[in-house]
Amino acid sequence: MGVFLFQNAIIGLNLAAFYSLMALGLTIMFGILRIVNLAHGAIYMLGAYGTFYFSTRLGLNFYFAMLTTMISLGLVGIVTERVFFRMVGGRFTAIIVLTMALTLILESIVDLGFGTVARGIAAPVVGSSVVFGMNISNYRLALIPITTFLVLALYYLVYRTNIGIAMRAVEENSVVAKLQGINVDRINALVFLIGFALAAAAGALMAPIYALSSDMGGLPLLKAFMVIIIGGMGSMLGAILGSIVIGLADSLLAATIGMELAYIIAWVLVILLLILKPTGLLGET
Amino acid sequence: MKKIFFIKVAAMISILVLAWLVPSVYAQTKEKFIKIGLSSGLSGPFSGWGIPWSRAMEILADQTNEAGINVKGEKYKIKVFPYDDKYGGAEAAIIAKRFVDPDKVLVACYIGGDGPLAARETLAKAGVIQFGLPFDPRYPDPAYPLSFASFMRYPECMAAAYDWVQKRYPAVKKVAQISPNNASGRGAKALIEKHWSELGIELLSVDLVEPAAVDFTAILTRVLGMKPDLISVSANPPKACGLIVKQARDLGYKGLFIHYVATDLSVIREIAGPENAEGFIGVMVSGKPLLPIEEKFKGKYIARYGSPFPDFALSSYVGFQLLVEAIKASRSLEPGAIAETMRSGKKFDTMWGKGYYGGKAYYGIDNQIIHPIPISTLKGGEILLLDKLDFPGYRIRPWAEK
């Protein structure tokens, strides 16, 4: 039983690493810009397809392909902010409709470009290792430090650099931040760049584990929302904590009571949390 | 002045629209059509079935329309009406109403999930022939003489394939099954749990999973702990099959995989990788060497929709052939007459050999298609045909008490 739980704890941490990348991109955009980006799942999907294209069609090394995709989609993020979001301003309903429309458009473009048949991509790290009696793929193991590095890099950027201070100032009050000489438009663009690049990284890293299809972003988006509801909207630490909770719950509950029941229980927990602590574990009012 | 300008522009646009519409409307009134509705998951996790299935019918319609279908001296063409039901019952039921009116189809085709049962009542009341694939013991049913099963299902495929598996892989003693929690998966579970022992194999577990799931690792740790010789991924769409294979291999599973009712080995290979998917057994899947008629169909598919070619399109095509051949043979557009022709015991030509409608001993009505069953596997990255079996008759007891 101990080994079984340990196995699933490792799998849960692996899932947590993935969920945290997705959730951090989403939460940083909400925390600073108050934007609920429903197109985040579509950007995740583009991250996977971009890496697929650069690595299998152009023959680039997987990690270089991932980096190229992150940069490309980060730039797409800047353009998206300029062309769409700045025009609609902070209108909530307009943003919801806009991000939903973007999702449908991007999914259709991928269907046209890559076809409707699901695709796969080979992992850059092959083989598996036996960890405490459990076989686990080396690539899944590698994901944990890679994701940890990305999360720490983001944490450093936000809490240890001048840009991060400016971002947090905009989060507190964009008008006052502007009066202090902070270029709010530039910060907004930077947040889009980071949010899109993180979603792209999640898509790229998960592509060798999952399958590529234009609708692949729906479930991760749902999980990311679960994570930030549990952790608290806009809180980076909350997103990480929420990822660990959901990752471990997904794994341990599915392994012990079955995937269907685990799914129901996870959502019941989210509903209970929304009732009892609407701001999430670490969110502010 | 401005007003006159806008009136002129509006008049010009109207003339252009009329000039575009009138010839096509005129052309349509000259031709006579047999309307066939297609309702399937064209988006979402089950599109791996829905898209090739719809496209197979579109190609068959094109091929049939070259000569047309002769009904009482008049030539008819097939016109298809494809819709996306997202593999769900609610959407399928709405589409059924659309099939009845305004589309007024002669045949409404459905694939999998809850759709066929959700649509059956509406179609039956309207006198529309239903050609569907639900993995459900309530289908076909003598109370619904116009509802036909468009694929061979568990009772047919397991009856044929289990003897074959036992002979070819005598080491297989313990089996685990992972299926989606939808009508297909639940139907498979009900049948397998009740009658597995009749097939002489120990069933370790049957897991029903969230249909949109992409991570099966947690479930697999428990399943693999029971040391199965064979994992059945039946009722899962090809994408999920590929993911289960890939994730099970990551966890060190070295045994066999099987899918009992028409999967897509090309998609499984693409997602799991050729090495991981090596040895996967696909029942009702054709492989190399393809017959000339299969190659011709594959060529047409790629020419029209591009690569890669999903091999699920082949089994879909065979089912539709049995439908179109029956319509041709009936020489009628009256649903009751077509249904009688289908149930007449007459054998029709298909790509895989002679097929017919049977199943009365099992379902109480001859509304189940029966045809030869190819079994293929992945070897060295290639899809190879292992065998082609004739349906041996039902080995297992009826699916469930009705």
Task: Write a short abstract of this structure.
By secondary structure, chain A is mainly α.
How is the secondary structure organized here?
The complex is a heterodimer of chains A (285) and B (402).
Chain A: H1 2-33, H2 40-57, H3 62-88, H4 92-114, E1 128-131, E2 134-137, H5 138-160, H6 162-172, H7 174-179, H8 184-206, H9 218-231, H10 236-257, H11 259-276
Antiparallel strand pairs in A: 1-2
Chain B: H1 2-30, E1 32-40, H2 47-67, E2 69-71, E3 74-84, H3 89-103, E4 107-110, H4 115-126, E5 129-132, E6 147-149, H5 154-168, E7 174-180, H6 183-195, E8 202-209, H7 217-225, E9 230-232, H8 238-250, E10 256-259, H9 265-272, H10 274-277, E11 281-283, H11 292-305, H12 312-330, H13 335-342, E12 348-350, E13 353-358, H14 360-363, E14 368-370, E15 373-379, E16 382-389
Parallel strand pairs in B: 1-3, 1-4, 4-5, 5-6, 7-8, 7-9, 9-10, 10-11
Antiparallel strand pairs in B: 2-3, 11-15, 12-13, 13-14, 15-16
Helix pairs in contact in B: 2-12, 3-4, 8-9, 12-13
Task: Give descriptors for this structure.
heterodimer, A: 285 residues, mainly alpha, two-stranded antiparallel sheet, globular, B: 402 residues, 7-stranded mixed sheet, 6-stranded mixed sheet, 14 helices, 16 strands
Elements of chain B, N to C (H/E): HEHEEHEHEEHEHEHEHEHHEHHHEEHEEE
Q: If interface size is counted as residues with C-beta under 8 Å from the partner's C-beta, which chains form the largest one?
A: A-B, 39 and 42 residues
Q: Which percent band covers the strand fraction of chain B? A: 15-25%
**What's the rounded overall pLDDT mean of chain B?**
89
* Elements of chain A, N to C (H/E): HHHHEEHHHHHHH
Helical content class of chain A: over 70%
Instruction: Classify the secondary structure makeup of chain A into a structural class.
Output: mainly alpha
Main pleated sheet of chain B: 7 strands, mixed
Q: Any idea what the shape of chain A is?
A: globular
Uncertain segments of chain B: none
Strand % of chain A is under 5%
Number of helices of chain B: 14
Mean pLDDT of chain A: 90
Distance from N terminus to C terminus of chain B (CA atoms, Å) equals: 75 Å
Counting helices, strands and paired strands, the structural category of chain B is alpha/beta
